[in-house]
């Protein structure tokens, strides 16, 4: 093996910078955890800089996530009380520690997951040391503003400032990524940054079990129980479904709106058909997907939606809002339906169409979800980021051969 080929395949040392990380439950934290574990499984060394979970325990130690050993650097943080769980690090703490950690670790690349405190401190420190910097954007300032205490009349000013600030930090990176092409186009338009990579968050498709039987008109929603998810629209929609369908809705997740949604379900007369399961284990989450017939995703603020990908890997048709990145996953009439955002009546109509499909059409939609999710397998995501860390060209990780998808469909069908 030549010296150059050794350099192109040698294990890497990566520093991931995260403003939110496990045990936080959200898309960005989940992606960072899976990315870190996947990189370790490929032989790389991963250090994660993330907020402390309490003000009393900070420092560096190893933690196991997704079966992988990660070198954690938990820095002092405080709870951001307008938000139900978010913690934030002090900018001066990040600035002081970023250089120290990079000098100790000597990474091949730094990959920050947001442009807030961690991304700012890491990008500046890495630039000074000539370390390659990759940035991934998981959030939109529009979604964060609702968790501030800024009066509504002043929010447009804050939004403009937030995008300008994001632009300054993201431009520090050698490469910028976001989960979908639509999100990448949006980011390019908002920041003026060009050549943003669309690299999906990815799921390990083989971890999920499709079931090709009708189970009883079960609808499932998975996600944070917060205002941005528009769960109240879903409750209004299911209240319009014919009772003869004998439908049920399971809401998996927790958040500050749980009690208000319970009250709304009672007011709409559907409390006996709606179950709020709260937070569940990964194993129970997979079971929730397997026993459902359709995923409902009413959110209008998804930059990708790991939940939708998990549901598709479970062979579920999806009814999703025609907003942001969801149309990238849900192909209307193929593996589900899109509905007009915030239109409960349209959502109800699309759910009813799914639940009343003939068996052969229902099976066709389930197989379409399995086919379309193949290009979002996390192994392709890992390969794409390895290329970026090494400064090599990236092959679109969503490009899959149809024959691979068909092989899996046949395998699943034969196993039933």
Automatic annotation (TrEMBL):
Keywords tagged on the record: Glycosyltransferase, Transferase
Keyword Transferase in annotation: yes
InterPro entries xref list: Glyco_trans_1, Glyco_trans_4-like_N, Glycosyltransferase_grp1
Domain of life: Bacteria
Matching Pfam families: Glyco_transf_4, Glycos_transf_1
Residues of the Glycosyl transferase family domain: 215-367
GO molecular-function terms, A-Z: glycosyltransferase activity
SUPFAM superfamilies: UDP-Glycosyltransferase/glycogen phosphorylase
Record domain Glycosyltransferase subfamily 4-like N-terminal: where: 25-205
Name of this protein: D-inositol 3-phosphate glycosyltransferase
């Amino acid at each position: 093996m030549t010296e150059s080929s050794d350099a192109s395949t040698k294990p890497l040392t990566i520093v991931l910078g995260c403003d939110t990380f496990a045990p936080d439950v959200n898309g960005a934290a989940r992606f960072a955890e899976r990315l870190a574990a996947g990189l370790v499984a490929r032989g790389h060394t991963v250090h994660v800089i993330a907020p402390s979970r309490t003000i009393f325990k900070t420092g560096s130690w190893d933690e196991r996530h997704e079966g992988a050993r990660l070198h954690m650097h938990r820095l002092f943080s405080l709870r951001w009380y307008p938000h139900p769980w978010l913690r934030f690090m002090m900018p001066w703490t990040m600035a002081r520690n970023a250089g120290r950690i990079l000098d100790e670790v000597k990474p091949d690349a730094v990959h920050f997951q947001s442009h807030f405190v961690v991304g700012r401190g890491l990008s500046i420190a890495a630039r000074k040391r000539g370390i390659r910097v990759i940035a991934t954007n998981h959030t939109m300032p529009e979604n964060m503003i609702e968790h501030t205490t800024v009066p509504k009349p002043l929010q447009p000013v804050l939004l403009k400032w937030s995008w300008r600030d994001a632009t300054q930090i993201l431009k520090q990176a050698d490469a910028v990524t976001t989960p979908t092409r639509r999100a990448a186009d949006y980011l390019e338009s908002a920041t003026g940054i060009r050549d943003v990579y669309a690299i999906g968050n990815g799921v390990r498709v083989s971890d999920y079990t499709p079931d090709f039987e009708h189970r009883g008109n079960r609808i499932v929603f998975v996600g944070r129980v917060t205002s941005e998810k528009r769960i109240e629209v879903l409750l209004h929609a299911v209240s319009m479904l014919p009772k003869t369908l004998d439908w049920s809705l399971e809401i998996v997740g927790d958040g500050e709106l749980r009690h208000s949604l319970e009250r709304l379900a009672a007011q709409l007369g559907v409390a006996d058909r709606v179950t709020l399961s709260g937070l569940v284990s990964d194993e129970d989450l997979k079971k929730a997907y397997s026993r459902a017939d359709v995923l409902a995703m009413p959110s209008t603020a998804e930059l990708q939606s790991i939940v939708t990908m998990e549901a598709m890997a479970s062979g579920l048709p999806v009814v999703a809002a025609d907003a942001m990145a969801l149309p990238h996953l849900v192909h209307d009439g193929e593996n589900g339906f899109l509905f007009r955002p915030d239109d409960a009546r349209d959502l109800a109509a699309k759910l009813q169409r799914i639940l009343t499909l003939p068996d052969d059409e229902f099976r066709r939609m389930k197989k379409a979800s399995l086919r379309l999710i193949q290009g979002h397998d996390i192994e392709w995501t890992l390969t794409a980021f390895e290329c970026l860390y090494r400064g090599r060209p990236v092959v679109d990780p969503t490009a899959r051969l149809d024959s691979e998808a068909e092989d899996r469909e046949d395998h699943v069908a034969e196993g039933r």
